[in-house]
Amino acid sequence: MGRDSESGLITGERLLDDVDRMIADAVRFGRPLSVAVAGLSAEGGPPDAADILRVAGLIQSGVRTCDLAGRLDDGMFLLALSGTPARAAVTPLTRLQQEVAELAPATSGGLRVAVGVAALSGLMSMEELVVRAIGLSDQAQQRGPGMMCLDPEPAR
C-alpha cells in the first residue's frame, strides 16, 4: 500500500517507513521532530467518506514540503513535522482544528479533531513515537472533541 484510495494520503507501510526516515534524519542532524495524530470525530457518529476527504484536503494543503501527512485509519491522520518541537506544532495544528470546525455546514455533522503531539526524544523508534502520539490523541479525545495534548518538552 502506498496511497489511500479514499483520501489520497500516504498510508500503510510506506507511511511508517517515511516516518522512520524522518526520525533517522532528525537524530542524525540533531533537529527536533514532532509527530501528531489527529483523530476526527463527527457529532452524528463516525465521520463519513466525504468528511474524511475534506479533512484530508485540509491536511494536504496545510503541511510544508518538508513535512509528512498520512492516514492511519478511517478517522485518524498522522502528521510528521520536521524541525518542529511540540510547542511549535501547536500553531499549525490549532489552525487545522479551526478549519475542520468551519467545515461543519458542508459535512454530515459537526466535525472536530482531537490531536496528540509527541516529540522525538533521544533514540526513540518509529513505533514508540507513533504509539506515543496515538496515546496523546486518545487523551485529547477523552477530554473532548477539538482538544489537544502535547508531550512534555524533552530535557536538553
Explain how this protein is built:
This protein has about 160 residues and is of the alpha/beta class. About 45% of the residues lie in helices and about 25% in strands. It has helices at about 10-30, 50-60, 85-100, 125-145; strands spanning about 10, 35-40, 70-75, 75-80, 110-120, 150. The chain has a six-stranded mixed sheet, sandwiched between helices. Helix 2 packs across helix 3 (about 85-100).
Our Rg estimate from Cα atoms comes to 15 Å
Q: Helix amount, in percent?
A: 40-55%
Principal-axes shape call: globular
Average pLDDT taken over every residue: 88
Question: What summary fits the major beta sheet?
Answer: 6 strands, mixed
Indicate the proportion of strand residues.
Answer: 15-25%
Terminus-to-terminus distance: 38 Å
What structural class do you assign from the helix and strand content?
alpha/beta
- Low-pLDDT sequence parts: none
Spatial order of strands in the largest sheet: 1-3-4-2-5-6
The tally of helices reads: 4
The string of secondary-structure elements, in order, is EHEHEEHEHE
Beta strands, count: 6
